[in-house]
Write a structure and sequence with these properties.
Shape: elongated
Radius of gyration: 20 Å
Number of helices: 4
Structural class: mainly alpha
Largest sheet: none
Number of strands: 0
């Protein structure tokens, strides 16, 4: 494995890219539903890459994909938390032009007992 240093360098650069994003999400405490699909795809890709390295028992790949999987999981959970937190009391997806907030309150306050 003469080229492991290239893989390690790439992984370090990927890891460095996460810190500004995580800091910005934490500082702004803001995310919306439109940012979530990107994190879901990145998390799935990290899970597949880590699974590949684990099934092949390749320690160098595990050492590279493990931290990326952890950061992808943390970034996804952080974004999911802020999406949920910022959508309290309001619909997650925007209302169309023919539905008012008053109509939504009437629909959501139906008593089924």
């Amino acid at each position: 494995m003469a080229y492991e240093s290239l893989m390690n360098t790439a992984s370090a650069l990927f890891l460095i890219c996460y810190f500004p994003e995580l800091y910005a999400n934490w500082k702004n405490k803001n995310a919306n539903i439109y940012n979530l699909p990107e994190k879901i795809i990145l998390l799935m890709a990290s899970i597949f890459a880590f699974s590949y390295s684990f099934l092949n028992n390749d320690i160098s790949l595990i050492a590279n994909y493990g931290p990326l999987l952890a950061l992808d999981t943390f970034a996804f959970l952080m974004r999911l938390y802020y999406v949920y937190n910022n959508s309290q009391g309001e619909p997650i997806l925007p209302l169309d032009s023919q539905t008012s907030k008053k109509d939504m309150k009437q629909v959501t306050s139906v008593d089924f007992s």
